[in-house]
Write a structure and sequence with these properties.
Elements (H helix, E strand, L loop, with lengths): L2 H17 L6 H12 L10 H35 L4 H26 L8 H15 L6 H18 L3 H13 L6 H26 L8 H8 L8 H13 L1 E5 L5 E5 L1 H8 L5 H18 L9 H15 L6 H18 L2 H10 L4 H15 L5 H8 L13 E4 L5 H13 L15 H14 L3 H6 L1 E2 L1 E3 L2 E3 L4 H20 L1 E9 L4 E7 L5 E8 L5 E4 L5
Parallel strand pairs: 4-10
Antiparallel strand pairs: 1-2, 3-7, 5-6, 7-8, 8-9, 9-10
Helix pairs in contact: 1-2, 4-5, 4-6, 5-6, 7-8, 8-10, 11-12, 12-13, 12-14, 13-14, 14-16, 15-16, 16-17, 18-19
Keywords: Membrane, Transmembrane, Transmembrane helix
Length: 541
């Protein structure tokens, strides 16, 4: 195409544009141009300027339409989020949240094959969150409602789940480079702790009756999910336990136990959690390992530096959530050092850490151990009482959950409830606490189930130390214990410290249950004429 032809073509195009209506679709524009040209034969040619112009029109139209659409959508969302919330919308949200919670609880019970999941403290914590959501009746706008609702949904999905599901939730946050709250890890540990009793009793009763010899190789096989010399039932149980976050451990007395796999948590989350939590997990894992192995392996100089680390951590982290547990770890490690380790190690401690508060306690222990072949209970108590108050646990007693009952105790409860035959309560093995304490737990469980007939049957009727402890009639008992149940429901589901005392030649037992808030519950037991320990009425709180 020469310059003259090009000029003619451009003039022709100009006239075509001028004759096109101001509002035309792209197809109409193209059709009009083609009609003006009226080619005599099919010919391929390029229209760079026309194409560019039309492209600008088309793209401009699309972008303009998209911007208008987005602006309209944003306006709609802003109007929707800022719109007032109706009572119907709030009630609908409450029903949705409550429904989600109840479905998840049912699903968890089915997965665990455990009917008492609602007794777990972590389930009740989530239900309290749901209750608070239901108590609120007004919101500024829809956005505020949805934000609160999403937060509650996330807590339900995270907490009302199997341990491995909760762990996967936390791991996903690491993979997504999101911040992990320390409470997420501590919540997970609390769940494993709450569930451990049931798994431990199941392991000892059903799967560890000589089928798996307590050897290092078998423990490794259980933990690595490759022990093939046992039954399918044992393999499935072991695999499930390891998946949840526990590990099998070879105990000093020649048996295999179950404990929380703290080492895995430390490895998976180091660098993603606070330094305080990382130190806590590391030291707790170390002490757990050392205090569970045989005494031949106890003389470990590493224990010296870790005790000092524990001291420093406690003193520097006043508001740490699990501080009381941290103090118990310190207490266990220190008493093991001063009463069980070789004296040479105690001397090394005082030399290497002269400024530590713990050193004064170690020096006192050295003084007595140097002059006495054995340190009696009186001396031990004197030395332990010298531990600085800021390092000493508030409660020296064992911490445990009273409820829910492990499966083996629930079976005993159901058996006695159906028959009221006291013989059914004489023969069973208690895996946590004493036999008498297990009777107390069955009694408390009956009350929480509002099964006052069973609780009444487990109540002592007579005199205690010359004082009248006669039971009232059943209706009075039921009325009084109904009120007592409501007053003490929270404490009975908390982690409590249990102090057990025995008096009167083994006929009287006193129990004190204390939670972290310092709330107390007292129960007294007395052995009746059939040699069955029963609870003295009324229990106090």
């Amino acid at each position: 195409m020469d310059d003259k032809q090009f000029e003619e073509r451009m003039m022709q195009l100009k006239k075509s544009y001028e004759s096109i209506p101001t509002k035309s679709a792209p197809d109409a524009i193209m059709k009009h141009i083609v009609q003006q040209e009226k080619p005599k034969k099919r010919k391929t040619f390029k229209l760079p300027y026309v194409a560019s112009f039309i492209g600008v029109l088309l793209i401009g139209g699309l972008i303009g339409g998209q911007l208008i659409s987005q602006q309209s959508l944003l306006s709609d969302n802003e109007e929707k989020n800022s719109a007032k919330i109706t009572t119907e919308q709030v009630e609908s949200a409450k029903n949705e949240i409550r429904g989600l919670f109840e479905r998840k609880v049912d699903e968890l019970g089915e997965k665990l094959d455990f009917a008492q999941v609602e007794q777990y403290r972590f389930i009740q914590d989530v239900e309290e969150t749901v209750d608070r959501f239901e108590e609120r009746s007004s919101y500024k706008n829809e956005k505020e409602l949805k934000t609160y609702m999403k937060k509650v949904e996330e807590e339900i999905n995270r907490r009302v789940s199997l341990p491995n599901e909760e762990y996967a939730y936390i791991k996903k946050k690491v993979e997504d480079n999101e911040t992990i709250q320390d409470d997420f890890i501590l919540d997970y540990l609390d769940k494993l702790d709450a569930m451990s009793e049931n798994f431990t009793s199941e392991w000892r009763l059903e799967y560890n009756s000589g089928d798996v010899m307590p050897t290092k190789e078998n423990v490794e096989g259980l933990n690595n999910k490759n022990l093939s010399v046992v039954s399918k039932e044992i393999t499935n149980f072991a695999d499930e336990i390891v998946t949840y976050g526990y590990r099998f451990n070879l105990e000093g007395e020649g048996s295999i136990s179950i404990q929380i796999n703290l080492d895995k948590i430390v490895k998976d989350f180091t660098g993603h959690i606070s330094d305080e939590l990382e130190s806590y997990l590391y030291l707790k894992d170390y002490v757990q390992d050392v205090l569970d192995i045989s005494k031949e392996q106890y003389d470990d100089e590493n224990m010296l530096k870790h005790i000092v680390h524990l001291e420093t951590f406690i003193l520097q982290n006043e508001n740490f959530r699990n501080k009381e547990d941290l103090k118990k770890v310190y207490h266990a490690a220190l008493t093991h050092l001063i009463f069980d380790m070789d004296i040479d190690l105690l001397n090394k401690f005082t030399t290497q850490y002269p400024d530590a508060l713990t050193t004064e306690v170690v020096k006192m222990a050295l003084q007595h151990r140097s002059t006495n072949r054995a340190v009696n209970d009186e001396l031990k108590l004197k030395i332990i009482s010298a531990i600085p108050a800021e390092l000493r646990p508030i409660f020296q007693f064992e911490a445990m959950y009273l409820l829910p009952l492990p499966d083996y105790l629930e079976r005993k409860y159901k058996e006695f409830k159906a028959s009221k035959d006291y013989n059914s309560l004489y023969t069973f093995q208690a895996f946590k606490g004493t036999y008498q304490f297990s009777i107390v737990r069955i009694y408390l469980y009956a009350i929480m189930q509002e099964d006052y007939e069973t609780a009444y049957a487990l109540s002592y009727n007579g005199k205690v130390n010359g004082k009248d402890a006669t039971l009232p009639d059943f209706n009075t008992f039921k009325t009084e214990m109904s009120s007592w149940r409501v007053e003490n429901e929270q404490l009975l589901n908390d982690l409590v410290y249990v102090d057990e005392g025995q008096y009167g030649g083994g006929l009287i037992f006193l129990y004190t249950f204390i939670n972290d808030n310092g709330e107390k519950l007292f129960l007294e037991m007395h052995v009746d004429e059939n040699l069955l320990p029963k609870i003295v009425y009324p229990p106090s709180s």
